[in-house]
């Protein structure tokens, strides 16, 4: 939610090379409009059939796609890219709601994943074919639909090495890569979600740049307890699992926080303490997920970080200190971390990926490549599947009406006979 990131990537067999990249930041007003729509979609449980007719949705969607197209077009202009040489745009869209099987309790009528973003409109505005909706086929076949990054982590491991790849985005996720193959991957929980939204609400800023506010605060143990308790049902759930801000209940958390810390709006120290605690929690949660890695997964001491969240010094240091044993905010987890460090056999080696700045954008270029080559994405659950499940759908410029505003597996897809 910080910017539209675009990267032009060339794939040549096992060689992956970024040619150029460009970021187009969201305005604060647009961030607020998208978040307000997301909160309403979750709160009101709006099915796809109704959402596409909603005037607010149509307005937010149009602004969003026009912004994505503007970013693509601007990158091509700046770097003199011949669009006819670009095979496709791999496009994820904006997640508004997500309820995977792991949270649906085994009821097949409940899982869904709702991403906003018309591939047809984006293709029309850029004159480049667009491949999108990579998650729907997974949900419709009983899988989580997230995270998708692990196979791409495996693809770059020849350059980066094996280990645990950890993404710090709105939601954090991890993948264990061994011998260039995915062992296991799952979503961790909120990372930037709480931090960025808190700063947006109380400072009208996009993020806590360089930890300028969080670095001034101190950890509030009682708030840490509240944060973990709110998501305990998910954090302690065995993988595979996928998460989403829909069940982080950010607005409810902030309402409770404002009630508990009554001077929040007036006292800068209280604001910094709460923000610092949210940042500590983000890093701690990532370390907890690592320590809770199932015993059948082979672990190693290499940790490769990517995603903008790691640029927050408080969150990053919390992860490092917790994983290395320098701090232990939750005494109940001490044995878990002690046992994991014994599994590692040596101190963790933690570094930021050399390919980390545009990892998520490149991931969807990689997924688009797999679609064009009719190849199965190397998620563990797809490798032994009897049928060949290819992720994604393609739209060509000016070849069809703009009627694909939402992902196929959006809320209510089970009732769609088409």
Give short descriptive properties of this protein.
15 helices; 418 residues; 12 strands; five-stranded mixed β-sheet; three-stranded mixed β-sheet; globular; alpha/beta
Task: Compute the separation of the termini in Å.
Answer: 32 Å
Structural class: alpha/beta
Query: pLDDT under 50 segments (min length 5)?
Result: none
Individual helix count: 15
Strand order of the largest sheet: 9-8-7-10-11
Radius of gyration equals 21 Å
| Strand percent estimate | 15-25%
Measured as a percent range, the helix fraction is 40-55%
What does this structure look like?
Helices cover 42% and strands 17% of the residues. With 418 residues, the chain is an alpha/beta fold. The strands form 4 sheets. The protein has a 5-stranded mixed beta sheet with strand order 9-8-7-10-11. The chain has a 3-stranded mixed beta sheet with strand order 3-6-12. A two-stranded antiparallel ribbon has the order 1-2. Strand 7 and strand 8 (171-178) form a beta hairpin. The radius of gyration is 21 Å and the shape is globular. The two termini are 32 Å apart.
What is the compact description of this entry?
This protein is α/β, with parallel strands linked by helices.
Topology:
Blueprint: E1 3-12, E2 15-25, H1 28-44, H2 48-51, H3 55-78, E3 89-90, E4 94-99, H4 101-104, E5 112-116, H5 119-126, E6 130-132, H6 136-140, H7 150-160, E7 163-168, E8 171-178, E9 181-190, H8 192-203, H9 221-235, H10 250-260, H11 268-291, E10 302-306, H12 313-324, H13 334-344, E11 349-352, H14 359-372, H15 380-383, E12 393-395
Parallel strand pairs: 3-6, 7-10, 10-11
Antiparallel strand pairs: 1-2, 4-5, 6-12, 7-8, 8-9
Helix pairs in contact: 1-3, 3-5, 8-11, 9-11, 11-12
């Amino acid at each position: 939610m910080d910017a539209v990131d675009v990267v032009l990537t060339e794939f040549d067999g096992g060689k992956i090379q970024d040619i150029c990249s460009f970021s187009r930041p969201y305005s604060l007003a647009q961030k607020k409009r998208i978040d307000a729509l997301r909160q309403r979609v979750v709160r009101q449980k709006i099915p796809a059939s109704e959402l596409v007719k909603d005037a607010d949705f149509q307005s937010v969607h149009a602004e969003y796609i026009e912004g994505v197209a503007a970013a693509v077009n601007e990158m091509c202009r700046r770097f003199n890219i011949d669009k006819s040489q670009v095979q496709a745009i791999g496009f994820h869209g904006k997640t508004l709601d997500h309820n995977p099987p792991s949270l649906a309790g085994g009821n097949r009528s409940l899982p869904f994943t709702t991403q906003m973003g018309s591939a047809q409109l984006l293709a029309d505005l850029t004159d480049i074919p667009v491949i999108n909706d990579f998650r729907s086929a997974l949900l419709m076949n009983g899988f989580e639909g997230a995270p998708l990054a692990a196979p791409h982590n495996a693809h770059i491991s020849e350059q980066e090495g094996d280990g645990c790849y950890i993404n710090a985005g709105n939601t954090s996720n991890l993948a264990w890569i061994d011998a260039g193959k995915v062992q296991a991957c799952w979503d961790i929980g909120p990372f930037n979600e709480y931090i960025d939204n808190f700063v947006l609400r109380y400072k009208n800023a996009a993020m806590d740049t360089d930890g300028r506010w969080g670095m001034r605060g101190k950890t509030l143990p009682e708030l840490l307890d509240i944060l973990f308790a709110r998501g305990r049902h998910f954090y302690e759930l065995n993988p595979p699992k996928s998460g989403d801000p829909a069940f982080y209940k950010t607005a409810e958390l902030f309402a409770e926080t404002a009630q508990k810390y009554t001077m929040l709006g007036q006292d800068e120290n209280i604001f910094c303490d709460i923000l610092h605690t949210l940042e500590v929690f983000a890093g701690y949660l990532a370390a907890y997920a690592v320590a809770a890695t199932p015993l059948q997964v082979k672990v190693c001491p290499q940790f490769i970080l990517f995603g903008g969240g790691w640029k927050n010094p408080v969150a990053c240091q919390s992860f490092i200190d917790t994983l290395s044993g320098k701090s232990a905010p939750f005494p109940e987890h001490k044995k878990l971390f002690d046992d994991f460090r014994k599994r590692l056999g040596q101190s963790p080696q933690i570094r930021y990926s050399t390919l980390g700045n545009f990892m998520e954008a490149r991931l969807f270029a990689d997924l688009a490549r797999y679609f064009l080559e009719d190849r199965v994405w190397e998620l563990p659950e797809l490798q032994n599947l009897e049928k060949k499940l290819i992720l994604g759908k393609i739209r060509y410029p000016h070849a069809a009406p703009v009627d694909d505003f939402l992902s196929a597996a959006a809320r209510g897809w089970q009732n769609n006979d088409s």
